[in-house]
């Protein structure tokens, strides 16, 4: 996928399978930001041929999107009957929770 400043986490994230998304979310929760080789470990956990660079790129896009949401630059849509039990993907919820309790940098 070509890199672009207009690339969104949603667009990049939607190219992953549901199973890969779930494994990504679980691995992010397991391998915190202090874990050596974090993105290599997450990529291994995700499987499906995902590389550490793809994992890092998705993470960075999610962090950027969360920062925009928190800065009021993005209106949060009302989720209604849209998979994931009617809410945003768990990785986004996880990042929102982390960013509201401590600041972090990519």
Automatic annotation (TrEMBL):
GO molecular function: DNA-binding transcription factor activity
Domain of life, source organism: Eukaryota
TM annotation in the entry: none
Main subcellular localisation: nucleus
Compartment annotation: Nucleus
Keywords, ordered alphabetically: Nucleus, Transcription, Transcription regulation
Domain Myb-like as annotated: residue spans: 12-65
InterPro entries in UniProt: RADIALIS-like, SANT/Myb
GO cellular component: nucleus
Name the record gives this protein: Protein RADIALIS-like 3
């Amino acid at each position: 996928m070509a890199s672009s400043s207009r690339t969104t986490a949603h667009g990049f994230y939607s190219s992953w399978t549901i199973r890969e998304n779930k494994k990504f979310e679980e691995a992010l929760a397991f391998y915190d930001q202090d874990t050596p080789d974090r993105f290599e470990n997450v990529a291994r956990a995700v499987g499906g041929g995902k590389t550490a660079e793809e994992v890092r790129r998705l993470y960075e896009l999610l962090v950027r999107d969360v920062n925009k949401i928190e800065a009021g630059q993005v209106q949060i849509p009302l989720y209604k009957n849209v998979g994931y039990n009617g809410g945003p993907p768990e990785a986004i919820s996880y990042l929102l929770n982390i960013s509201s309790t401590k600041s972090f940098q990519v």
